[in-house]
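Record type: monomer structure entry
Structure origin: computed from sequence
Chain ID: A
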Amino acid sequence: MLIDAHVHLFPARLAQAIRDWFDRHAWSIIYRQTAEEALSLLLRGGVDRAVVLPYSHKPGMAEALNAFTAALAADHPEIVPCCTVFPGEANDEAILDAALGSQGFHGVKIHCHVMKIAPDDPRMDAVWRASARHSKPVVIHAGMEPANPGYGTDVRALSGAERVRRALTCHPSAIAIVPHLGAAEFTRFEALLEELPNLYLDTTMAISGYFAEVPDLDMLRRHPQRILYGTDFPNLPYEWDRELRIIRSLELPEREAALILGENAARLFQIPIPSKAVRQPQGRGSA
């Protein structure tokens, strides 16, 4: 089973606002379809499940975003819905308990740069406690890069491996997935895998070669049980399967490839999977 563990599908107006921000501050997103069209593209390309990660940009957005994601997942069983919350907003812990409990979300998405919050900020305690209570992961963009001035804050000051280490030391039963292999502290985050048993990394954009700083790809060989395949689709400046093709080119042993491309995500996000080999994608997406 092929699982993309890092997909962003938003309501149309918010998706357009995000694309506008990227146009001004980062790169030109080539995928500008509706959420349903974007999902269809992944499925045609061979993806079996898409872990959808909404994230709040300000207080008061979370419940509407969660409702949108839940409705999308109800119509499309290939979606694995995660929830979001704006840490410190009113009733944040209640929002999380409902989402991760009776509402059936599979994890939580936090974006430190967008939310302007550090992993070890006391406002994050409710998120880490909810993760521990429900045994569901927090996908938290806590790496320092890309340190884009468009966020309006010094993201390097509120991100990084040391802050993640402090947060998970205080909340050892919480589960964290740090995207982008922790860019740009690849070596430091890899070292943390030895120290923090509930820390995982995903490949999102880090191995694509798009950015000047790239990780040692042998990290995937060293830690196949702790790394997940993810893309950041559809917010990409290149073809969605670029990283998948790079992973395939490494010719990892079948078992290690299966872990990275699906089984780790299935375990962490509690996704039932059939007993079968990871299948090859059937095609390639286009803009």
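Annotation 1: The longest strand covers residues 3-7.
Annotation 2: The chain has one domain: 3-268.
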